Amino acid sequence: SCESQEGTSENVESDNRYYLNEPLITDNFTADPSAHVFDGRLYIYPSHDVESVVEEDDSGAHFNMRDYHVYSMAEVGGEVVDHGKVLDVDDVPWAKRQMWAPDAAKKDGKYYLYFPAKDHDDIFRLGVAVADSPEGPFTPQPEPMEGSYSIDPAVFEDADGQHYIYWGGIWGGQLQKWRTGEYVSTSSNPYADEPAGDKPAIAPKVAKLSDDMLQFDEEPRDVKIIDKDGNPILAGDHEKRFFEAAWVHHYNDKYYFSYSTGDTHNIAYAIGDSPYGPFTYQGVVLKPVEGWTNHHSIAEFDGQWYIFYHDTELSGKTHLRNIKMAELNHRPDGTIETIDPQRR
Ligand code: FUB
């Protein structure tokens, strides 16, 4: 047959291009990869999944992680270096358990690790730890960020050098319990405090970071995600509403807000003209992976954009994940080509 015909070879090429599809790390379980290029090298700040005696429940108690490792590589496909344990829950005075999805940022030669953990009252807060190198080790601040709550911090540096922090996650991530501005839990059912289906979905949060990178520099704002008619995505629209795993990247003068839709397992994205949004819903970046959670980051390295994500190929268990990366492409109109991680 005519394997070399134009159409066929295009398909083959795009398969190779899109799906690197190999676990990047095989001697630790890793998840929620936040990737950044610092000083010309690609660094990944993931969660470190561990087997735990805690039973699975709807609030994610089985995601019982205790520390973070940092990984890096000089080039895509090259050796992935494990820089070892860079922060342990026992070294964070305010944190009790569940070191969930982290992110990192660089400013003025210092490196900052942002992470969620449950405090001694089992309320999720956001912490910061500081290092002189992107490899860590990171020294935690003694208190969580003032006024912080919920999970999945993601830090974006705008072209003018200003950093913004995005965060939030519903259900186990507790964002729905903060709708009054205070922590209010009406039920042990993790989804009990969500709005009715015909009301706007709970919004993720954004705030400028202070000059020293350690605090919010303003009252947190809602990140508005709207449809093409300008109406908010509704709480009942589980295919599109924000669940967790916020990430922002900048491409061709537009800001891209991407996130997990949780119980429908997509990474969706929305586009805006400002780091604050509003962001208009566009579609799906990454279809469901193996395992319940879907959590990603997007970064450009050596002129190519990549998505970093995880699945459960190595363990077959939802809470023991392995990170992967694949090429990501923006179309000429700015939309993103959907990636199907289960297509082989
Ligand atoms: O890894 C623990 C939690 O699971 C993350 O914080 C969520 O985004 C989900 O991936």
Automatic annotation (TrEMBL):
User: Which SUPFAM superfamilies did the record assign?
Assistant: Arabinanase/levansucrase/invertase (SSF75005)
Q: Which GO terms describe its molecular function?
A: hydrolase activity, hydrolyzing O-glycosyl compounds
- Report the superkingdom from the record: Bacteria
Protease as a keyword of this entry, yes or no, is no
Site Important for catalytic activity, responsible for pKa modulation of the active site Glu and correct orientation of both the proton donor and substrate: list residues. 152
Keywords of the record = Carbohydrate metabolism, Glycosidase, Hydrolase, Polysaccharide degradation, Xylan degradation
- Has keyword Hydrolase? yes
Kindly give the InterPro entries that the UniProt entry links to this protein: Glyco_hydro_43 (IPR006710), Glyco_hydro_beta-prop_sf (IPR023296), Glycosyl_Hydrlase_43_Enz (IPR052176)
Q: Which GO terms describe its biological process?
A: xylan catabolic process
Family assignment?
Belongs to the glycosyl hydrolase 43 family.
What is the protein name stated in its UniProt record?
Glycoside hydrolase family 43 protein
